[in-house]
Amino acid sequence: MTGTLWLVATPIGNLGDISPRAQETLQRSALVCCEDTRRTGRLLQHLGIAAQALAVCNDHTEHRLSQRVVDELAAGNDVAVVSDAGTPGISDPGERLVRAAIDAGAVVSAIPGACAAISALITSGLPTERFVMEGFLPRKGQERTDRLTDIAAEHRTIVLYEAPHRIARTLADLTEVCGGDRQISISRELTKMHEETVRSTLSDLNIGEPRGEYVIVIAGRTREVEPLTEDSIRDALDAALQVGLSRRDAAAEVSRRLGIPRRQAYDLVIQTAPSNESDTQ
Fold first, then answer.
1. In what order do the strands lie in the sheet with 4-8?
2. How far is CA 92 from CA 34, 151, 281, in A?
3. Are 13 and 213 in contact (CB under 8 A)?
4. DSSP annotation of 10
5. pLDDT tens, residue by residue, 99-139
6. Which CATH number does 4-114 carry?
7. What is the pTM of this model?
8. How far is CA 30 from CA 62, 69, 78, 101, 222, in A?
9. Are 187 and 120 within 8 A, CB to CB?
10. Which residues make Cβ contacts (< 8 Å) with residue 237, sequence separation at least 6?
11. I want to staple 77 with a disulfide (CB 3.0 to 4.6 A). Which of 72, 90, 158, 225 is the partner?
12. Domain 117-218 classification at class level
């Protein structure tokens, strides 16, 4: 195998977001796999690229296209994979082509670029350190119910995609399972002239007339913190004493860790471990 399978990110709206490296890769690829040959053809025409061959890659064709891709790679030719917009393989076709190329021993590489999920996440104002990508929800049945239940219980920030004709139902379902006070950010037309992001709680959200595809970013479920009791503070003090801290140092450590007044911690440690030692505050 001397050919490389390239996953090439394309613009999600603004055509200026495509990189020179992406253009070079599309230019030299013997085959460009895409969701819609007309849409990709217009993009290539805009870039001044005459593709050698285009092939439709969607849920129905990706499996049988895999062998053609492997044959091209085996012949030493590069193959590019693109989606209609954004990074292929993220809620778009491409995953099975990648698996087939890897199983055949080919090199698989990515040309990074636009991704609607990441763009919406980093502008949401919600936590980005840990997040989960859910893509499109199942449309109906127990599978949808189960997924919504998982989302309601998820502690990480959640990213979803949704179409305009299903957005109202999805937001209603999310409000029901997550509660109206859950924070949400919803974006549409990212990188385009009429880009819009609305940040609110689910109960107060108003997106107006649905237009364009949406990226929904939802805050994770807040972890419930058990209230501090005198017994739990005593347990923390006892643990600090067990590792050799003096009563004064144990009180200071527990005060810092649990966020309680130092005086409260010290009064309890005196009761917990009375001694003749001359601790002072």
1. 54-56, 31-34, 79-81, 4-8, 107-111
2. 10, 21, 63
3. no
4. B
5. 999 999 999 999 999 999 999 999 999 999 999 999 999 99
6. 3.40.1010.10
7. 0.77
8. 17, 10, 6, 15, 50
9. yes
10. 250, 251, 254, 265, 268, 269, 272, 273
11. 72
12. alpha beta
